[in-house]
UniProtKB/TrEMBL annotation:
GO terms for biological process: regulation of DNA-templated transcription. One of its GO terms (molecular function) is DNA binding. Keywords: DNA-binding, Transcription, Transcription regulation. The keyword Signal does not apply. Residues 271-334 form the HTH luxR-type domain. The keyword Nucleus does not apply. This is Helix-turn-helix transcriptional regulator.
Length: 334
């Protein structure tokens, strides 16, 4: 187990579920990871790297550089995208050491950065997030030994992300604001926002305690991803935002509109099953619950015994931390 300042990372996991803020978590993670891979800055993000990560922790990044780095990643001005090496045998790469990394080297030089180690956090169940580590210019660059050491941290970091997401109650403590809409222009900057969207931004920033530039970079990324085709959906956990939220982007002429709202059942269910470890069969049972089916009806529809259905229900309630079907359905209703 990696240790953070003399205490197990397990203690940090417990703290993460009880209001630890963005800066505190980032600093503690940095101390923990430094024991295995010394670095000057760290970013740990949760979510599928083929899309935008839905929550993250940063430490040691100068704000202008952090925003510029994210913008470069989102707009394709980057030598290695996370999704490109997610399937590699060792899903990690060192950026900034190859002379072909022209844009990255230029960006790094302007901010005193020497190299960056990037790694996708992947296990047999899928991809859970990404890790980025920086070293300052003039210091030793990351090498193969550090890549191997970082790869050995994967199980612990995946455990941190999963426990962070699942440590808080699934149901929000207060009613959700009404959906809000942002309009993002061709320059990837927010042009306008409804009053509800402003309320959402205020609510989210207050809960997560992240600096404003991370939000700007996030919406710029949604804008860039939408202009590349598709309609990206990002679902964020209650641990970061007080409730499970969804940001859905659509192209509208030269602009991109982003709807921010409490995640609907359809939006939430895939993330819920992944983070809480629900099986395919348990997901089917949850789907039947959403249709207000009783245990006997679920058993008949899925060709199971009532006893087996009740076993699945108990497992679902235990994994998600709810006290029964009503509380689960409340959580799924946003």
């Amino acid at each position: 187990m990696i240790r953070s300042g003399g205490r197990p990372l397990r203690e940090l996991l417990a703290a993460a579920g009880h209001g630890v803020d963005w800066a505190e978590a980032g600093a503690a993670l940095s101390r923990a990871v430094s024991a295995a891979v010394p670095h000057d800055a760290i970013r740990l993000s949760g979510g599928e790297p083929g899309a935008l990560c839905s929550f993250s922790f940063w430490h040691g990044y100068e704000p202008d550089f952090g925003q510029a780095l994210l913008n470069a990643c989102h707009t394709g001005e980057d030598p290695h995208r996370w999704a490109e090496f997610a399937a590699w045998p060792v899903p990690a790469v060192v950026v900034g050491v190859d002379r072909r990394h022209t844009a990255a080297r230029r960006l790094f030089a302007g901010h005193g950065v020497g190299s960056e180690l990037r790694m996708v956090l992947r296990d047999a169940r899928g991809v859970w997030g990404t890790l980025g580590l920086l070293r300052s210019a003039g210091g030793r660059q990351f090498g193969e030994a550090e890549v191997a050491a970082a790869a050995r941290l994967t199980p612990t970091l995946v455990a941190f992300l999963r426990e962070y997401v699942t440590a808080v109650p699934l149901c929000p403590a207060s009613p959700s604001p009404a959906p809000g809409v942002l309009v993002v222009g061709p320059d990837h900057r927010i042009r306008s926002a409804t009053a509800n969207a402003v309320d959402w931004q205020r609510c989210l920033s207050a809960r997560h305690a992240a600096p404003p530039w991370t939000g700007k970079a996030f919406f710029a990324g949604l804008s860039a991803a939408t202009r590349s085709g598709g309609s990206p959906l990002v679902v964020g956990p209650a641990a970061s935002y007080g409730r499970w939220i969804a940001c859905q982007a659509e192209r509208l002429g030269d602009d991109v509109t982003v709807v921010i709202q409490a995640a609907t059942a359809a939006q939430l269910l895939p993330s819920l099953c992944a983070w809480y470890g629900l099986t395919d069969r348990e997901r089917q049972v949850v789907g039947q619950l959403r249709e207000a089916a009783a245990a006997k009806q679920i058993a008949r529809r899925l060709e199971l015994s009532v006893h087996t259905v009740n076993d699945h229900l108990r497992a679902i309630f235990r994994k998600t931390g709810v006290h029964g079907r009503d509380e689960l359905l409340t959580a799924l209703s946003g």
